[in-house]
Amino acid sequence: MATKNLTLADFESTILGNDIVLVDFWASWCGPCRAFAPVFEKSSQAHPDIVHAKVDTETEQQLAAMADIRSIPTIMAFREGVLVFAQPGALPAAALEDLIGQIEALDMTEVHARIADQKAAAGA
């Protein structure tokens, strides 16, 4: 599966409508972003069951601001609509593969329970 370009209009529906979504926040002028692009594209081919999406921070400035992007590239990973990873910097191919394995291995029942506990504690 090829990478998908995300905009503010389809960001939320993409995150909520897919089990795992990896998002690469990038810009065309960014050297590390251009270097990471083939690694991300190759990963999208190797993992057709995972949405690999890209957000151009130049054209999607409001979305980048909402995501609190301060450095690019920044990689975010969502599982079942929950942000489970966010880190600036290009990842080597092996590190991206390791990250995908960790995301797939997450016990999402436990993650959702922790989120519910945090919400309950904040409301108390």
- The total count of helices amounts to 5
Shape: globular
SS strand fraction: 15-25%
Alpha carbon gyration radius: 15 Å
Strand order of the largest sheet: 1-3-2-4-5
Helix content: 40-55%
Q: State mean pLDDT (0 to 100 scale).
A: 95
User: Count the strands?
Assistant: 5
* Low-pLDDT residue intervals, each spanning 5 or more residues: none
Q: Could you name the CATH class?
A: Alpha Beta
Task: Write down the CATH topology.
Answer: Glutaredoxin
The secondary-structure class comes to: alpha/beta
CATH architecture: 3-Layer(aba) Sandwich
Largest sheet: 5 strands, mixed
**How many domains comprise the coordinates?**
1
The ordered string of helix (H) and strand (E) elements is: EHEHEHEEHH
The end-to-end span amounts to: 45 Å
The CATH superfamily title: Glutaredoxin
Describe the fold and architecture.
- This protein is an alpha/beta fold and 124 residues long.
- The protein has one domain: 3-Layer(aba) Sandwich (Glutaredoxin).
- It has helices at residues 8-16, 31-46, 61-66, 93-105, 108-123, and strands at residues 4-5, 20-26, 51-56, 74-79, 82-88.
- A five-stranded mixed beta sheet has the order 1-3-2-4-5, with helices on both faces.
- Strand 2, helix 2 (31-46) and strand 3 form a beta-alpha-beta unit.
- The termini are far apart.
- The relative contact order is 0.18.
